[in-house]
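Reopening this ticket.

The earlier resolution said the output was attached, but the attachment link was broken on my side. Pasting everything inline this time so it's all in one place.
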Amino acid sequence: MIQLLSVAIVAGLFFESNQQTARGSDLVLLPKPGCWTDWFDRDDPSGTGDWETLSHLRNEYPGKICSKPVDVEARTLSGLTVAAAGDVIYLSDTTTGFVCRNEDQPRNKMCNDYRVRFSCPPSFCKGCWTDWFDRDDPSGTGDWETLSHLRNEYPGKICSKPVDVEARTLSGLTVAAAGDVIYVSDTTTGFVCRNEDQPRNKMCNDYRVRFSCPPSFCKVCWTKWYNRDAPSGTGDWETLTNLRTENPGQICDSPLSIEAVTTDTLTPALSTGQTFFIYNQNEGLVCRNTDQKSGLCRDYKVRFGCPC
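Inline output:
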């Protein structure tokens, strides 16, 4: 039985499949449902070889690779398959990733420079992951990365009904690798590691979390930036009601998210250290001068994320 790589175009769809030929009859194995990641190239063979391992790739490209890939593919930067390149490959699997070691090549030859990609299940393809969030550390009773707190501190950044949650230490370790006893980790409450649950008076590691959201949350189209007020009076009032009145038909009925930056340096509002009276996608932004230590808000502009 001869393994052949075929390229088929069906109704305008380009895909690669493994074709098995046996005694004149062709059996075409269609690809498994799912999707391929982008191509990744984090290393080159100038050292001991080309190490495109999953642990390194996940650290450098957080959220871009599913937790359990179903296939892996490697090609040289010029597009050659591994077979065509002729290198001796040390490892290529969905658990560790891809490794070509220079020491394994004949006649002191170096490995080619490879890029890799991974095939992921449909659950990874349908939807998107949020940014990583780290609002607490375990110096108190533990590390409390709860959805209620995160939504207050990062309005509009997390969907109303997440479908999955993932936590890692700040150094990139999974929960299993870190070895902590986790009090709660779900899509309703969020993530909590309590110090009291750890053996031998050990403290929890410091964790960051992210959430997987449905496609309706991922497909966001942003409005233009609006700046209808200045903080010369009582503050900067960029309310959704006023913005809709002054810009009829330009903002959707139910925004999914809000983003605000300063008008001078484009600093994100949540990074300025100022206190906001209102900051959410349903009401807009209100910064009151009386709430600020300096006595004056900065001048902000806002935009809204709407369903595309």
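Reporter confirms the inline version is readable. Residues 181 and 199 are 8 Å apart (CA to CA). The first helix runs from residue 54 to 60.
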